[in-house]
């Protein structure tokens, strides 16, 4: 299989034009850490952004950073750390869960809208993404957005590219807003709550004025013998002490919590470490937070499964057997009844080829998606079928 590694945006545009002219289907990659996520590749060549590397913009006072798409994410994060700043949305590292190697890249963060536990407070990656450069399927170099947040009339290409999984264009450069790193991070830990009670506690905390930046529940057996309900607060030490005290008083009906400063606790939640060592299928299910426990219970009536919650109950990470359809029929029926969507994050190639990986779209939405794909990639050469057949 041929592999292309353009050294600049112009070369990338030329390669895409040539591929479109001969109908050569391209698999777009950065660090290739998510090759096992999505439908199996239906490509004839690889187009890599790895050589499109380097930080192009950093203005600490304006809290803006930009880099070429192939820049290692760790390089950007290290630069931000020197000035006490960070990416607000806490991007997940998929390598341990998917058993992949390589280095996550800055462009891939935008391409898959990679967002972790802090999403409940800071929003998703797309909410901090303010500028992109990309090459569409016609081989045209496109720039959208800039260095500041703006109101947009018409089609917002910045937000459109976030989470498009390379099906609309090869990102060549991305720009994000950043935030200061907080002085202290602490987690209030309640033990022994069942799922429904835990989500009730998380909802009460999230509805308070004490600003949680993480809200997760790990049932018994997920990383510890007892169930743990986690509430993260960040800020200045004096503020943290006050908010922990107020939260403890507000939530006294749920028990007496402990305060943890355990390093790696939220990294484990973010990167799905509880399911990383297994060989089962892993699903990522989004729903209304208060419906999370009912949805998990409905799935458990039809499948043997393990799960835990992030985003106050609105995100369920669920592990089940990878045999057959990996539980797709039961999970999608439950999601349809409760509301939400489910993504198959980890499963063998044969399962991902037979089962819709992303939540199936209603026919009107699929028509819109096909129209957008045709406008940006009329020859269908960019990551064909990565998300949906024909897209």
UniProtKB/TrEMBL annotation:
Q: What is its EC number?
A: 1.-.-.-
For this UniProt entry, the molecular function terms from Gene Ontology, in alphabetical order, are:
FAD binding; oxidoreductase activity
Q: Where is the FAD-binding PCMH-type domain?
A: 1-181
Entries under InterPro entries matching the protein: FAD-bd_PCMH, FAD-bd_PCMH-like_sf, FAD-bd_PCMH_sub2, FAD-linked_Oxase-like_C, Oxid_FAD_bind_N
**Which keywords fit this entry according to its UniProt record?**
FAD, Flavoprotein, Oxidoreductase
Write one Pfam family the protein is assigned to.
FAD_binding_4
Q: Which domain of life is it from?
A: Bacteria
Could you identify this protein by its name?
A: Putative FAD-linked oxidoreductase
- UniProt organism field: Methylobacterium dankookense
